[in-house]
Specification:
5 helices
Length: 236
């Protein structure tokens, strides 16, 4: 009897095992279930919306910074094209505005005399002109052609002057300075370049400084062209 009971139990166990194996084999042979249908998700502003859906919606829209960068590049490229087009325009085809006539500037005019003296009228002066043989009173500043100071009848610091009085005749005054003074008016000023041929060809010619230092300085440059700035004070 006991053997019969065990035999039946074994049959049930075997039957149950065979059913389990068969069900597993059938499940493995059966095709997988079809995927759920794809549904388009509409973006919602509901706070209960899943985080993945919100991230997906954000990735679809282009960032604002990229949009601004693209707009800026398009604007710059447009400006370059316009500049290139403008450079191709013929400037001669454009109307040119009429320019007003410019006044001529005051040009310093020099005169060269027959003696070789080159003079410039700085101030014209007033009154009668000095003529040859007249006695004249004047101040002067003597410089070398390179601008170095030599002598002056006007003190550079105090402004005091020691004018010179000389006749415009005879052989007392240097010929170049005589040519400068002739034709001047009282209060007039002239600047002249006197060549050495009509300058201090003799140590006795005037005007000449009384002091030893200025006299020596003037005579040491007697063989050079000298620049005189003369102001006629009075025709005596």
């Amino acid at each position: 009897m006991h053997n019969c009971i065990f035999y039946r139990l074994d049959e049930k166990i075997c039957a149950s095992r065979s059913c389990s194996v068969r069900s597993i084999e059938l499940s493995m042979r059966s095709p997988p279930p079809p995927p759920p249908p794809h549904t388009h998700t509409i973006r919602s502003r509901c706070p209960s919306e899943p985080k993945k859906i919100r991230l997906a919606c954000r990735r679809r829209a282009p960032p604002l910074k990229a949009t601004c960068e693209i707009s800026r590049r398009r604007a710059v490229s447009g400006m370059v094209v316009l500049g290139a087009a403008a450079s191709c325009i013929d400037p001669l085809a454009l109307p040119v505005p009429a320019q007003a006539a410019m006044p001529e500037p005051d040009v310093i005019r020099y005169r060269k005399l027959d003696s070789g003296v080159i003079l410039e009228d700085v101030v014209e002066g007033e009154g009668p002109e000095a003529r040859e043989g007249d006695l004249v009173k004047f101040n002067y500043v003597c410089r070398r052609a390179n601008g170095y100071f030599v002598h002056s009848t006007v003190d550079q610091f105090s402004g005091e002057s020691k004018p010179v009085t000389l006749p415009l005749g005879g052989e007392e005054i240097i010929q170049g300075l005589k040519d400068v003074l002739i034709g001047m008016k009282a209060g007039g000023k002239r600047r002249a370049l006197i060549p050495p041929e009509v300058g201090y060809i003799s140590e006795t010619l005037k005007p000449i400084p009384e002091e030893f230092g200025p006299r020596r300085s003037l005579l040491s440059h007697a063989k050079e062209p000298l620049v005189f700035e003369v102001q006629l004070l009075k025709v005596l």
